[in-house]
Amino acid sequence: MKPLFTKGPSLGVRLLVLVVLSVALMVVDARFTLLKPVRSQMSLVLMQSYWITDLPQRLWQGVSSQFGSRTELAAENEKLKTENLLLQGRMQKLAALTEQNVRLRELLNSSALVNEKVEVAELIGMDPNPFTHRIIINKGERDGVVLGQPVLDARGLMGQVVELMPYTSRVLLLTDTTHSIPVQVNRNGLRAIASGTGNPESLELRHVADTADIKVGDLLVSSGLGQRFPAGYPVATVKEVIHDSGQPFAIVRAVPTAALNRSRYLLLVFSDNRTPQERANDAALAQEEEDRQNGITPNIPVTVPPPVPPAAPAVVPVPPATPVATPVSARPANPATAPAAAKPPAAAPAIVQPAVAPAATRQREE
After folding, report:
1. How far is CA 137 from CA 121, 177, 260, in A?
2. Region Disordered: which residues (predicted)?
3. Where are the beta strands (DSSP E) in the chain?
């Protein structure tokens, strides 16, 4: 009699097959890039799950904002108006300083970035691995994001893009153990390397000399030496400096300025790839356009050609004079009475002999 339910392989065999398959997939994913297109396509499906899991929080925020009290809203409105007025006053000063900075950098022909293009992104997920500090944002390759692009929030740098997908990207945070960034002390320009420790609230400065001028409370900013992060953005604040006389390097710990565990809206920084000459030309064109709109006539420098030195007189070779033979009878007897060399010699007098008849000549010979 045939059994009603067919008996398949045991649970132990199934578990062994699944374990082997999982290990094989992990090895292939780590060693090769064969599964990268598959992961990219799967991200399209997972994006919907991210949106669904985040939906309750969005609904709660919408409901709470709708039922907020009128008093709280009015107080918040007054506070925002005051802050807006203060920020506008500061912005007027900042605009003048920014314009002055741009013109000075153009005069110095500097290649440093003055203003970067940024785009707002939203955090939609986090890596569940506790030993990896990575987040997922809602901007991907279709939005112009590139590998290594810096990411920051309202307080400072957060990390860089390490993996691209069509509509999402993975960002490696500064506190990851595999991440390092070149920094400098804002007070004196001391350069160092800030590395992640695996703690979201701590960074460590590697290979800082024990005699280095660094203090608790110093602000660390990006130096831009790695050509990955733009210079001048805040990275961390020094929290602890330990000097050990028996060690060549001091132990320096810092706290990131960015809210790595709390920021939801981030900024993607797009670097300016123009050459210094192109930036100077664009700035000059913008300045001319602004002057034209303000009715200011641009001062066009007149180019005066340099004075031409007078040409040297041409030296024409003079052929030597042909010597003229002078008859002996025409030469003067005394050399002192000879005429000067500059004067041409006088013509010799012609000697005229009287004509003698041939008959008389014969009689005289006889």
Report:
1. 6, 21, 13
2. 277-366
3. 117-126, 134-137, 150-152, 157-164, 169-173, 180-185, 191-196, 203-209, 219-222, 234-242, 249-256, 265-270
C-alpha 273/C-alpha 117 separation (Å) is 11
Torsion angle, CA of 173/178/184/185, rounded to 10 degrees? 70
Q: Over the stretch 192-231, which tens digit does the pLDDT of each residue have?
A: 999 999 998 999 998 999 889 999 999 999 998 888 888 8
Q: Is it the case that residue 15 has pLDDT exceeding 50? A: yes
Q: Decide: helix, strand or coil at residue 219.
A: strand
Lowest mean pLDDT across 18-22, 66-70, 159-163, 257-261? 66-70
- CA-based radius of gyration for the chain: 48
Q: Which residues pair with 191 in a beta bridge?
A: 184
Six token digits for residue 66? 């709708």
Q: Residue 242 phi/psi, 5° resolution?
A: -115, 120
Domain residue ranges in the chain: 59-109, 119-269
pLDDT for residue 335: 42
- With contact defined as beta carbons under 8 Å apart, do 183 and 191 qualify? yes
119-269 CATH: 2.40.10.340
Reduce the secondary structure of 167-195 to three states and give it as a string. CCEEEEECCCCCCEEEEEECCCCCEEEEE
Which of 223-227, 234-238, 290-294, 348-352 holds the top average pLDDT?
A: 234-238
Whole-angstrom distance, CA of residue 28 vs CA of residue 314: 86
Residue 41 structure tokens? 């396509």
Token output for 187: 């007070």
Amino acid letter at 16? L
- How far apart CA 204 and CA 219 sit, in angstroms, is 14
Q: Which residues 6+ apart lie within 8 Å of 206 measured at CB?
A: 180, 192, 193, 194, 195, 249
Q: Please tell me whether residue 229 adopts helix, strand or coil conformation.
A: coil
Q: What is the mean pLDDT of the chain?
A: 76
